[in-house]
Design goal:
Layout: H1 2-23, H2 30-43, H3 46-57, H4 61-71, H5 78-89, H6 94-104, H7 109-120, H8 125-137, H9 145-157, H10 161-173, H11 181-193, H12 197-207, H13 212-231
Length: about 230
């Protein structure tokens, strides 16, 4: 009888020990969450999706953002994606704020502007680029070349080649900034150096008269870049 009573007590102790070990395990890193979510998105891995969903349910901002990215392409999950992006963005997740802006832009550009600004203020280059585009087009905000140039400058300084190319054109024409040929050329060359195809093509056109060989080389780079980019999809 004593032995029979001892066994259940031992099993309960072992179970309690196992539960304590599980509860004390460290939380997943951001890299682990992102890798698991990538597996869920690209491979349709349901187990991976469940793991991300469980982490998001615990209020982990990275998991909320990554689960929103899983849901984003699914029309029936649009509201869930918006909610999760907003939850993560409100904790300071710049990528979540940017993606929320991307989702809102087609139907509510004025709301998108607020989230882009939140992300841009945290040094998010693409968000600053989008603000420049919205201001340039009068989309969601008043059309303002100076505001557009400001945010393109922010994005450019953060390394975005598309912003550099657009700002090159602004400096060339004096749109929102004082006309400055030297600054314009500098931006064009920097965007081309970062392999932004329109910039490479534009630079090739500017050097073609003086250096046809260099121009040909630049255009070849554009062709190869587009071919490689196309083959990734």
């Amino acid at each position: 009888m004593k032995r029979a009573a001892y066994l259940p007590a031992l099993l309960l102790a072992m179970l309690a020990s196992t539960l304590a070990a599980c509860q004390s395990s460290p939380p997943p890193t951001a890299a682990e969450i992102e890798a698991t979510a990538t597996q869920a998105r690209q491979a349709g891995d349901q187990q991976a999706e469940r793991r991300v969903r469980n982490w998001a349910a615990k209020g982990m901002p990275v998991a909320e953002r990554e689960l929103a990215l899983v849901y984003q392409p699914r029309p029936e999950r649009r509201d869930d994606a918006l909610r999760l992006f907003e939850q993560a963005a409100r904790t300071g997740d710049a990528e979540a704020a940017f993606e929320l802006g991307q989702m809102l832009r087609p139907g509510a550009p004025e709301q998108a502007w607020s989230w882009y600004r939140l992300a841009a203020q945290q040094q998010h280059a693409r968000a600053a680029l989008m603000m420049g585009l919205l201001a340039a087009n009068g989309e969601g905000v008043s059309k303002d070349a100076t505001t557009a140039a400001h945010w393109l400058e922010v994005s450019s300084k953060l390394g975005n080649p598309q912003a550099m190319f657009l700002l090159y054109d602004a400096y060339r024409e004096g749109r929102g900034v004082e006309q400055d040929a030297a600054r314009s050329q500098q931006l064009l060359e920097e965007a081309a150096h970062r392999h932004y195809p329109p910039a490479v093509e534009e630079l090739a056109m500017t050097v073609q008269i003086d250096d046809a060989t260099h121009a040909s080389h630049l255009l070849k780079q554009v062709s190869e870049h587009r071919h490689n980019h196309w083959n990734r999809f």
